């Protein structure tokens, strides 16, 4: 028994000098690319994506079939750009399509709209601070014009707050925003949610989707305070740059998803006279 304990203690002590044996984590390897060619085909009024001769399916096993040909081509392109391994985390358009088709949380159109409406009270650009003069001036110069545009565009009266107290959103404001969102198909709303979650702002997301802001500018505005503070505390280039590029990629995918999911990109049925 003592010999066994000594053996265990000896093994444990030896490993103390080898931290890699204590702290190494194992992660599931990404799936290897198993196909050579991607293509898009039209079937039964919708567009499908094929990987070689296999039809693409969603994570829940449903057939990938959408009404927008450009969106199907974009998804096929994402799969075509994968190299040895399939990096799902970088395939934002595919992920959005899968979410819209599978609807894993069983969200209704009303659920999605309510989520976006409730997000307005936590919108990044509505929370400003006057305890730092330079930062406050920057927020006023960069954020206030977008708030003004949003109020004019959507007939709202959103006002910023200067402390941690959430801004008051009137029922009329909620109603006007809700009417606009309810005018979209459920699939499109998934794109709105993805954009809002990326920017932490309904106002900036709507401005980007409405092409009032470029994607790069919208991400910069969403990170305004962080960029301001980095001037004083320094910038970890690889980390900050990676986060910014990832946010731009996510937002660009959301905007493209919304636009390509609108009816003008759907299959047009031929009318026989």
Automatic annotation (TrEMBL):
UniProt keyword Chaperone, yes or no: yes
One Gene Ontology CC term in the entry: mitochondrion
Subcellular location: Mitochondrion
Highest taxon listed in the record's lineage: Eukaryota
InterPro entries, per the entry: ATP12_ATP_synth-F1-assembly, ATP12_ATP_synth-F1-assembly_N, ATP12_ortho_dom_sf
Keywords of this entry: Chaperone, Mitochondrion, Transit peptide
Primary residence: mitochondrion
Biological process terms in GO annotation: mitochondrial proton-transporting ATP synthase complex assembly
Family: Belongs to the ATP12 family.
Name under which the protein is recorded: ATP synthase mitochondrial F1 complex assembly factor 2
